[in-house]
Specification:
Ald_DH/histidinol_DH; Ald_DH_CS_GLU; Ald_DH_C; alpha/beta; 2 domains; Aldehyde dehydrogenase domain-containing protein
């Protein structure tokens, strides 16, 4: 096969040229030992967009070798922070220049609306790269007093080395930046495995890596099936760190493989996993605003979000009023073709995900939950699911306990603050949580009591690049974003310097 594909998009009257090879050492290449392909689908039409090379474990070996060489020669400790910053800012400039094209390609392969891809995902990607570019020349250690007359100690914050990074399909460009930016800032090199469902924008970004002027081997992009490429990275003896965003089940496998390989300690494995995030509505809340935040918490990205506010609990005194507001807001959400400017949300990513979500919907119905809106399948092509709200829920129901990853919301009721916190924390997950109240003391009490890595007060779902993000319980380990993400890619070395003490021997 050739290593490019010409893709014509009729809605845009536009043709894209997409690299389809493995990106290793700043070149697009074929697999060394496999003819296997990954077929990228358009979830709105269920048709194949193009096919790309699927990396084998041997290809992963070659990419890791390239990344190791770059780490030891042209990156790592061999380049200044200011140069890393310059290249990262240049890459951000190029992404900004091509934002419209990248957004349209993201819509083609992922399904989300162009305006969301461009104005949210890609805009945040640019900000993320620039934020960490600002950190690149500010990686500092400490000087530690030992004995002022004879000794001192200092710490060096060294890049941890070669990083295997595995990203999901729900935010292909944005998750790329979350992983790449802090790693580059401290001087790590990267072998990136994008999701096999959404490989196209990661490959297109690789072209911009070359244009920005990064030396070969610093960022390598290898689309691959999870059990092949992902498993090879997690178990690789020359990969110093693995960073993964995805399901809790896969996260466990990665942790196990990392430990069994070169004993990557927990600090060298960061996992951003699933969630079943609660959203609490207290009687003092601004109900109009709270209903908007609850609606976006459920509907954003068609519910395909690890921090989706998929459980909303409402105080009994405002239950009916708030539910009416929420239903009215959710009914305004239009799920349709991402190239249509009127669309708010696109299709689900795949037939597998579509079937999984419908299985949960049927489970909810069979266990006695009531769908007050939605719950009926469309007849046209595309993996579309209109928003569904369930009431009459119970804690033991599957739709209440398990992550659905679609536009499905469970609504419950509580009487007291203590009951609300208990319901919210009754989950094996701990990624996000939200609460709405005008009582400042209540906001402080409840935000402290909620068992989640991120808590939103009188808002929901939006994140900032300078604020850390990560989970508790089975929602993962480690942190992304903010200065905390840098620590995930740093190895701290202590240097003891003797300038005055004489050793008598034998002791």
């Amino acid at each position: 096969m050739t290593l490019t594909a010409e893709i014509h998009v009729a809605q845009l009257n536009k043709t894209f040229t997409i690299p389809t090879g493995l990106f290793i050492n700043n070149e697009f290449v074929r697999s060394v030992d496999s003819e296997e392909l990954i077929h990228a689908l358009n979830p709105a039409t269920e048709q194949i967009i193009c096919s790309v090379v699927a990396a084998s474990s041997a290809d992963i070996d070659i990419a890791v070798t390239a990344a190791r060489k770059a780490f030891q020669t042209t990156w790592g400790k061999n380049v200044t922070g200011s140069e890393r910053s310059r290249l990262m800012n240049k890459l951000a400039d190029l992404i900004e220049r091509d934002a419209q094209d990248l957004a349209e390609l993201e819509t083609l392969n992922n399904g989300k609306p162009v305006k969301i891809a461009r104005d949210v995902d890609i805009a945040d990607t640019i900000q993320c790269l620039r934020y960490y570019a600002g950190w690149a020349d500010k990686i500092t250690g400490q000087t530690v007093e030992v004995d002022n007359k004879a000794k001192l100690a200092f710490t060096r914050h060294d890049p941890i080395g070669v990083c295997g990074q595995i990203i999901p399909w729900n935010y292909p460009i944005n998750m790329w930046a979350w992983k790449v930016a802090p790693a580059l800032a401290v001087g790590c090199t990267i072998v990136m495995k994008p999701s096999e469902l959404t490989p196209l924008t990661a490959l297109k970004l690789s072209e911009l890596v070359v244009e920005a002027g990064f030396p070969p081997g610093i960022i390598n992009t290898l689309p691959s099936l999870g059990p092949v490429g992902g498993a090879a990275l997690a178990a690789h003896l020359d990969v110093d760190k693995v960073a993964f965003t995805g399901s809790t089940i896969t996260g466990r496998k990665i942790m196990e493989a990392a430990a069994k390989s070169n004993l990557k300690k927990a600090r060298s494995v960061s996992l951003e996993l699933g969630g079943k995030s609660p959203h609490l509505i207290f009687e003092s809340a601004d109900l109009e605003q709270a209903s908007s935040w609850a609606a976006i918490g459920m509907c954003f990205n068609s519910g395909q979000d690890c921090i989706a506010g998929s459980r909303v609990y409402i105080q009994d005194t405002v239950y009916e009023k708030f539910l009416d507001l929420l239903v009215a807001k959710v009914k305004k959400q239009i799920m349709g073709d991402g190239f249509d400017e009127k669309t708010h949300g696109g299709p689900l990513i795949s037939k597998t995900q579509y079937d999984k979500v419908w299985a949960y919907v049927e489970s909810g119905k069979s266990q006695g939950a009531t769908p007050i809106i939605g719950g009926e399948k469309r007849t046209e092509k595309g993996y579309y699911i209109d928003p569904i709200i369930f009431t009459n829920i119970r804690p033991e129901m599957k739709i209440v306990k398990e992550e659905i990853f679609g536009p499905v919301l469970c609504v419950g009721v509580f009487k007291t603050e203590e009951e609300a916190v208990s319901l919210a924390n009754d989950t094996t997950y701990g990624l996000g949580a939200g609460l709405h109240s005008k009582d400042a003391n209540q906001c402080m009490r409840v935000s402290s009591a909620l068992e989640a890595g991120t808590v939103w007060v009188n808002q929901y779902i939006f994140l900032n690049n300078n604020v850390p993000f990560g989970g508790k319980k089975q929602s993962g380990i480690g942190r992304e974003l903010g200065s905390y993400a840098l620590e995930e890619y740093i190895s701290v070395k202590a240097v003891h310097w003797n300038f005055g003490e004489k050793l008598d021997w034998p002791l």
